[in-house]
Specification:
46 strands; Immunoglobulin-like; five-stranded antiparallel β-sheet; six-stranded mixed β-sheet; mainly beta; single chain
């Protein structure tokens, strides 16, 4: 027979078993014998309604977990009266935490059923005890309480509280068994959220401990660097994704670890095209990008756009423009992490100055000292110098002179060039940026000067009387050029003739180093010789 604890109804079970000590939660509709005592000696497993009911005596751990899960290890640890309230503790004797889900607590006070109470959302740690209920029952001395707890799986726990005082003791509530320590919860954040290389990153601890205090922090920044500060700072010299780990320990020695990936971004290089630049048409202009740099790596390429549809490469490079004007030059640099930056500058390609020979310009006949003239201008600058040249073949040019002030004019002594010869004049103008322009006389002109003619005016000796065998004799003579053209003295010598005949071979005649090399037309020069 089976007696329901709260209802005096008798049920007859079909079949035979060795032990029958059953507890029920609700009125029994039917009873079915599921498993005989062969599971474990002295054990009966039965089911009725929608729940599975069992009375454990010696079910093995494996069978228990397979059939009932971890609830098989729950039991009512204690009941206590606390100022008229009924407190209930549940013990977990198993090796795993158990979460209380939909427990229903039935209470019978002095034989009278009370309103059932539902309990859920409580975790009973392994080998731990937790208070699951505090129910107002207006308890007093002499009351007797019977508690039955059922679970979703049909598992049943029962316990009785007798408040009848004993002669030698005072009933007091048992002490609450403190729960086991709960581990801390590790967490952190960092700023900036998108750091670049060498940025100072602030790591902020957000860890908590629900039943104590976090007392230590161990950081691993993923680059072999660590810290034990609660809120450390760190920077990364290389762009990469780093796994940052924080392990925290609470005041009971429990730990927790959290990991987060921190992506450190590459810093782009800094392009520097230098400039502004200037130059002349057709002239190689050097462009310098050596001022570019990469704050966290190396620049691997320099690409130039010269603004005239042509390009170049290299840290420094040269380019010549075919047309004058102002151009925008762009430098693009790329670093070893594919970061890119650009910089622009300008280049002024200079217009060359314009010069025109005004005199002589062909067909004239020149003699004596003539003034050679030219006009010059520069559309984008200033003419700073005009230089004049002459040539008798248009290929080999000889310098006349130069002038820095407009009107541009120099003096040319035509007596120094070959007489009765035709010539050309060329003028070269230079501006303030070094550009040059030139012009040549339109036609040849001629030079006509009276040819040079030399006469020896007098000869003197020192001493005035010279005898044969004398040495150290100084001879001076004056030579006159009666023509207009310069007389060039290419060789000066003296033949010394004695009264008795030519004896020059017996003497060494040495011209003075200071003797003139030319004689201007219409002038007289003095020559000196030493005879030994």
């Amino acid at each position: 027979m089976f007696y329901h604890p709260f209802h005096e109804k008798i049920f007859i079970l079909r079949g035979s078993v060795n032990i029958m000590n059953l507890k029920s939660v609700s009125p029994i509709i039917s009873v079915v014998l599921l498993i005989s005592a062969t599971i474990a000696v002295g054990t009966i497993l039965m089911a009725w309604g929608s729940g599975l009911l069992q009375e454990k005596q010696s079910v093995s751990e494996e069978t228990s977990k397979a059939v009932f899960g971890n609830e098989n290890y729950l039991s009512i640890d204690n009941l206590a009266n606390d100022s008229g309230n009924l407190k209930i503790w549940v013990r977990n004797s198993g090796e795993e935490d158990v979460e209380v889900k939909n427990f229903r607590v039935y209470i019978k006070k002095n034989g009278i059923e009370q309103n059932p109470v539902n309990v859920s959302g409580i975790t009973v740690p392994k080998k731990g005890t937790v208070q699951i209920a505090d129910i107002s029952l207006s308890l007093k001395e002499g009351d007797k309480i019977f508690v039955r707890i059922t679970t979703e799986s049909g598992y049943v726990m029962t316990k009785t509280l007798d408040l009848t005082p004993k002669p030698t003791s005072t009933i007091t509530p048992p002490p609450t068994t403190p729960p086991s320590n709960l581990p801390p919860d590790a967490d952190f954040t960092y700023t900036p959220q998108n750091p670049y290389t060498n940025d100072t990153i602030q790591f902020t601890d957000l860890s908590t401990d629900s039943d104590g205090t976090v007392v230590s922090w161990s950081w691993d920044f993923g680059d072999s660097q660590t810290s034990t500060d609660q809120n450390p700072t760190h920077s990364y010299p290389e762009n990469n994704t780093y796994t940052v780990s924080l392990t925290v320990t609470d005041d009971d020695g429990a730990t927790d670890t959290i990991q987060k990936d921190v992506t450190v971004l590459n810093r782009d290089p800094i392009a520097d095209a230098d400039g502004p630049y200037s130059g002349n048409v057709g002239e190689n202009i050097t462009f310098d990008g050596s001022g570019s740099y990469d704050p966290d790596g190396n620049i691997v390429s320099w690409e130039w756009d010269f603004g005239d549809t042509t390009t170049g490469s290299g840290e420094t490079t040269t380019h010549a423009y075919s047309s004058p004007g102002d151009y925008t030059v762009t430098l693009t640099v790329t670093d070893d992490d594919s970061g890119v930056d650009t910089d622009t500058t300008t280049v002024h390609v200079n217009y060359s100055p314009v010069v025109t020979v005004t005199y002589p310009n062909g067909g004239e006949t020149l003699n004596g000292i003539e003034n050679i003239t030219a006009v010059a201008s520069d559309s984008d600058g200033t003419v700073v110098l005009v230089t004049f040249y002459y040539s008798d073949d248009g290929i080999n040019w000889n310098l006349i002179d130069s002038d820095t002030t407009s009107p541009y004019e120099v003096s040319w002594d035509t007596r120094r060039v070959l007489n009765n010869t035709t010539y050309l004049i060329k003028a070269v103008a230079q501006d303030d940026l070094g550009a040059t322009g030139e012009d040549t006389s339109d036609a040849i002109f001629s030079i006509s000067n009276i040819p040079a003619s030399l006469n020896i005016l007098n000869i003197k000796t020192s001493p005035t009387e010279v005898k044969q065998g004398d040495s150290g004799i100084t001879v001076t003579m004056d030579v006159e050029n009666t023509g207009e053209a310069f007389a060039s003295i290419t060789d000066s010598y003296l033949t010394f003739t004695h009264l008795s005949g030519d004896v020059s071979s017996d003497y060494t005649v040495t011209p003075s180093p200071s003797n003139p090399t030319e004689i201007e037309g219409g002038t007289t020069e003095t020559f000196t010789f030493t005879v030994d």
